[in-house]
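From the thread on structure requests for the teaching lab: each student submitted one protein with a one-line request. Submission from student K.M.:

"Model Mpv17-like protein from Chaetoceros tenuissimus, tokens only."
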Amino acid sequence: MGLWARYNKLLEAQPLLTKAFTSLIGFTAGDVLAQNFINEDGESYDVMRTIRLGSFGFLLHGTTGHYFYGFLDSKMPGTKPVTVASKVAIDQFFWNPIFGCMFFGYLNFTEGKSFEDYTKKLQSDLKTAVMGSWAVWIPAHTVNFAFIPPSQRLLYINTIQIGYNVFLSFLGNKKADDGEEKKE
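Reply posted by the TA:
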């Protein structure tokens, strides 16, 4: 049995777990790429950063994506242009800011930072994350909702997410604008 067939068999038998592992791989790969190939500061590789991002993919991205996209598909089935446009709008104007809050909150929590640090991070970077998302995810989700079968949505998203996670990795780990140093 080929890899694709095995993946689909796992997706059918254990959809939530399979999507969670798919997201773990996507977020881990994105951070590995960010740290190894686009490291402008010359800092040494941060294994804990990769673990934080990978665990975010596994615990939050894969699971919430499974339920959110399943809900969206159940309430708005089909691929008519108005349906696709509506799904993209809901994803980008409602889910995207919620996802950003979860992402920054998870990193804040796993780094042991305060709620004040979290609110500063949201004020500093949430708008950038949301608007940066639009450039990638509006066209990507237009393809997603028009052509990708619902069961494959998270795999498609995670494939694109690898590149997008380079951006998220940098944004999530950049120092606060108020001059505070990032806690390790």
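TA comment: Residues 16-173 form one domain. The chain has one domain: 16-173.
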